[in-house]
From TrEMBL:
<dbReference type="InterPro" id="IPR043917">
    <property type="entry name" value="DUF5753"/>
</dbReference>
<dbReference type="InterPro" id="IPR001387">
    <property type="entry name" value="Cro/C1-type_HTH"/>
</dbReference>
<dbReference type="Pfam" id="PF19054">
    <property type="entry name" value="DUF5753"/>
</dbReference>
<feature type="domain" description="HTH cro/C1-type">
    <location>
        <begin position="22"/>
        <end position="75"/>
    </location>
</feature>
<dbReference type="Pfam" id="PF13560">
    <property type="entry name" value="HTH_31"/>
</dbReference>
<dbReference type="InterPro" id="IPR010982">
    <property type="entry name" value="Lambda_DNA-bd_dom_sf"/>
</dbReference>
<protein>
    <submittedName>
        <fullName>Transcriptional regulator</fullName>
    </submittedName>
</protein>
Amino acid sequence: MARPPRKLTPDRSARHLFGADLRHQREAAGMTLEQLAEAVRYSRSHLARIETAEHVPPPDLPGRLDEVFGTGEHFARLYAIARHEVHPEKFRRRMELEARARVINEFGGPLVPGLVQTEDYARALFRVGNPKASPDEIDEKVSARLSRQTLLQAEAPPDLSMILDEAAIRRPVGGPAVMRRQLATLVELVDTATTTVQVLPFEHGEHALIDGSLTLMTLDDDTNVAYVEGIGIGLLIEDPETVRARRGSYDLLRSYALSPSKSAAFIRAAMEAFS
């Protein structure tokens, strides 16, 4: 005897509402989970967990659902709210401000910043960060990380400028194949209308941001904020004087980094080492 479908609670959060609307639209269309899985190219079990709000929807699923069900941008709009709920409470304020940012300047320390990580690169980091995590827990974290990247595909994306430490280019996170794909993604962002990537070589030596990462954001009301991060610790800075000091450190570091064209050549040379 088949187990009855789990009761949904759409009033609990946007994430639960997304799942409830997914089941409503699926049943209204007379589709089984298997049929929908084939249509949107996701597994039945993954979709079942999204319906019951156990998993956050991955970034590309809302558009596929709107296409299959003919719901315009319903799921895309709902996802824009629901995606913030997968982040721990202490990071949500940062996510809210990031969504309002018109300019983002980022130094990622020894890692490629989350806004431009590939799925496999992010997955490798989450696995090593918590070796006891289940595959479902890792999938959840990866989806949350990738959800931030919808910002860069927006109609009017923020201007993004990144400084990458040479360590972020050289360390083979996830292995050579994963790292090569990650570097290929970075090359595409080196010098575009809205993105700039520069590499800070080891030869520069010590600098003011050497022990962490820094994100500077200019918001839609011209407010400036900063976010600094260490191992498992993040601090949002909104005090104008402190933000200006962090801005000074970033600007100085950028003056020591390679130009975008030289950075592209540097990254391509590093890719060859992973072939």
